Structure formats: C-alpha cells, structure tokens
C-alpha cells in the first residue's frame, strides 16, 4: 500500500495534526493510476528479480543454506567514515568518485556474505536493491524517474537485481560487485516501472525470488527520525524488527547510527548460520584490515 516515503508522509501528517495544525502541510494524493500496467501489457525488461529458478543445488531454495540443527546468528555492524573510506579505496578510480555509500556497502557485504556461505561456484547469487522511482531524474545517469506528485503516499519502489555466479563474485575484487549493483539500479526509470507493472499483470503478480538472494533497503534518508508528535524527535525511527519476515537472512537494512563517541555512520544487521557468521566476520576483517565494529548482537 505504501513505501517508506509514503509512510513518513502519512505519519508526518498525523504528527502535524497532533501538534495543533488544522490541515497537514502536504495534502495526500491518490494517483495510483500512474503505476498501472499498460494496455496491452508490453514488458521491455527481463525482470530477473522474478525468475523461477532451476537451481544447481536442489536444496538451495532459501537465501541461507541452513542445517536443521544449526542456529542462526544476528549481529549489527557499524560502518563509519573510516570503514566506508577503506572500502572505497579498494575500488578503481572511476568507481571511487561515482559510487554512493549504498552501492559500496551493499556490494561489499554481498561479496563477504557469499564467501562466508561458500555455495557451489556455479550457483547464481542475487542482490536485490530497493530503489525508489520518485523524483524528476538524475542528469548524471540519464535516468528519467516517474513524475509522481509530492503528496503521493503509495508504493513507488522497484526491486532491480544484480546477479553473479558465486565463483565470479568471490574471485573478483569488490569493484566487480559495485559495477553490478550500479548497473541494476541504473535500470530504474519511467519505462522500467511501467515494464514492472506489465510483467506482474502477465505473470500473476509473482513474488521476487528468494533463492540465494539478499535484499537491501536503505533507511538513512526516509525521515522516520524527524517525526515529532509533540514530545520532540524520537529516540529511534526505523523498523521494529531487524530481520523481518519468516525467511531468516533475506532482508537487511542500512540504518543511521551515531556511536557513543559521537561518530556518525550506519549500522547494517546481518543474519547467517553460526558457522558462516564466523567466516563472514573474518572476511570483513580481512578486507577492512583494521576490522569492523560490531554494534550489537541481536
């Protein structure tokens, strides 16, 4: 029904009314027809995020290969300016200057997670990015985004996917994964959103594939932390559960965080089988050299 920006708009309106406003600053707009499928539907992208997979390993149907008796472990990892700079320094110059923190972190964590899980080298690994189609566009990338009214509070998200075999992802440097993430995100424009709607209509609204998938959502700029219902800004604004859903390890978030020492950065919750979590931490320390701060065990 609504994406993060739509939820913040709705809650922001409630907060304004609670503080005494007669009407909210941003009036709600329905506008659902903007994202309707075309008639007739005519998808123009492959939309591999909805693939029905034939897997190399028959039992690899979940994001994580869990043994029936193995426990999962959940940790939050902190990435501040030093950690992000260390990862950025590993990239070719053109990626150092053109890549966002989201692209760098998700690619880096995708590679480390894959190495920790040690899947079959021919198995396809997937990183699904949650990308908003709101806004007028980006002159640097040429993306033409949807002209969605400011008050639209519905869902304007796409789920483009970066795909690589496990072998290629593990063998290549981090820049390889960053390129894949950037390419996946760059697809999302007006035509892509219409193509998604067409694809869903033709294929019965399939769920995105979860096999060997990791989905990232960035919540650093949504505005949940700025909502004021009359008692001041919240101590925390974000998801109630850091590993939501019934499938462990499928979804992770990038959340704003300030350490006790006043260092601003982000925390990223990760869920892995116990044995893989140990290897994941080793890969983080190896690639970051000076190590990474574990914000909390969850």
From TrEMBL:
MF terms from GO for this chain are: acyltransferase activity, transferring groups other than amino-acyl groups
Secretion signal, residue range per the UniProt entry: none
State the superkingdom: Eukaryota
Q: Which residues cross the membrane?
A: none
Keywords, sorted A to Z:
Transferase
InterPro entries, sorted:
CAT-like_dom_sf (IPR023213), Plant_acyltransferase (IPR050898)
Family from the record: Belongs to the plant acyltransferase family.
* Name this protein carries in UniProt: Benzyl alcohol O-benzoyltransferase
Per the UniProt entry, what species is this protein from, by scientific name? Eleusine coracana subsp. coracana
* Gene name of this polypeptide: gb20741
